[in-house]
Structure prediction request, 356 residues.
Amino acid sequence: MLREFEDEMLTCTMCGFCRWVCPTLERRGWESFAPRGLVNIGFGLLKGKLRPTKALVDSVYSCTTCGRCVVKCPPQIKVRDIVLAIRATLFGSSVAPASIKSLLSSVARTGNIYGRTGRKISEDSSSLILFPGCNVKHKHPEILESSLRLLEHLGLRASVWGGTDCCGAPFVLGGAFDQFRTLARNNFGKLRSSRVVLPCPIGLQTLRVSYPMFLKEEPPLASHITEILSTRIGSLRFQETSETVTYHDPCYLARLMKVIEPPRKLLNSVPGIRLVEMADSKENTRCCGSGAGITQTYSKELSREIARERIEQARDVNADRIITSCPYCLDQLRAVSGALPVDDITVFLASKLQSS
Ligand code: SF4
Ligand code: SF4
Prediction:
């Protein structure tokens, strides 16, 4: 896998533009945590000049995969993909992180990151499938309920996905590519002919990008819930509010999937709302530190430090509330936001719906 990136790694000029936007480097300070440091690590491993060590694993699993370095890199080196290829190289070694191995064995055993067993949701035959993903299904059922309520308000009937809870992202992000292919192949067989809607950007990026990349198939027709809702915005009727809110763009949604305007259009359609932008927003958004659950699992301390920086940006614009559209960002920001409320966009919008 790393070999595929050999030419690309050689085009790194070591200019260092990527250094100024990396949230992990900002906290850790060492060049081995910088995007260009990670490119060097990849090249060293590929050429047999470096051996897997705990220190090297620390650098590679501390990357949040936010992708901000890629946008700033003049030759557009795919640092994020290189990091995943390094993880795939390290995952089979004796120094692979125990916390990540344990997370992935939970997914392999139960089909979700929390290791929960139990009730399967029964699917019916609607052509629109709502795929909640592990986090929404097990930790934030209110996001699932609000998503269904908003769709229903628009006259759209969706059935909730009844297959494996996990989209497979933890496998691909943790470095277990073979396990990812197996899970993705199984999900893909059932999703390929459906229209899929997701409240989780990690799942969306996995279906849209990782499934076709690993399975060599056309991606399923998948959208984030805000994309679907924003196309029928005229049919949504909200109560008036006087709140000032700021919107935290999830890296996986705004930067990796370029879904930037739909959530803003939806928020701006609530009468009386004042939407203020943080210093880093839209494609240039600042990471919440979750790393789609991987950085959070590997180093809670690092992920929280990164989240605190984001909360400071929200405080700087005097927002009454932070709204986001990713359950992982929600958990991260809530953990450090103190008295400042943080909500998922579907829950916020559903709470503002006028009763019909
Ligand atoms: S911005 Fe790109 S080319 Fe420059 S050091 Fe970083 S990875 Fe290398
Ligand atoms: S993907 Fe994000 S955390 Fe990882 S090296 Fe690039 S900027 Fe840093």
